[in-house]
Amino acid sequence: MESPRFLSGKLLLAMPGIGDPRFEHAVIAMCVHDENGAVGIGIGHQRAGIGVRGLLEQLGIDPGETPDTPVLHGGPVEPGRGFVLHSDDWGGQDTIAVTGLGALTGTIDVLKAIAEGRGPSRYLIALGYAGWGEGQLDEEMTRPGWFAADGRQQILFETPTAERWEATFKAEGIDPRLLDSGAGAA
């Protein structure tokens, strides 16, 4: 069995019945996971009432021809802070590589580049993130609740938001309809 450590580049899926409504059907793109903790960006739920164009306007950035794609709910930590998970054909200040998924940028320069048509070719914009302290995710992975799947760019950039959870399980050869949402009894 693969060690739960170092899940960077994986997609972390909340199992049915995880017990935390904030993570119901969550799909989290794991961007950093090391001895200091873990950071992931939720890619399975949209923020209500805001699209990319509206977000850019709120930040004082002329959206130009930017498509009005959804802004995602990246996670419960710092829900007002933005992150862009994007293809690796663009890099700016503080961009970090995310093996298998592309790159992550949390600074406004990427939003300006997107609005000006010189940003990454593919991107997802999220507010907030999921974070775990030192050893916390490692411990959580030893009990039921999370499933680590291979990171696939087609899930991130080509699959509609609402379909990512199911599509990721299917890509792993798992029929999500067969997953039990309740605890078993012996």
UniProtKB/TrEMBL annotation:
<dbReference type="InterPro" id="IPR003774">
    <property type="entry name" value="AlgH-like"/>
</dbReference>
<protein>
    <recommendedName>
        <fullName>UPF0301 protein LVY65_03320</fullName>
    </recommendedName>
</protein>
<comment type="similarity">
    <text>Belongs to the UPF0301 (AlgH) family.</text>
</comment>
<dbReference type="GO" id="GO:0005829">
    <property type="term" value="C:cytosol"/>
</dbReference>
<dbReference type="Pfam" id="PF02622">
    <property type="entry name" value="DUF179"/>
</dbReference>
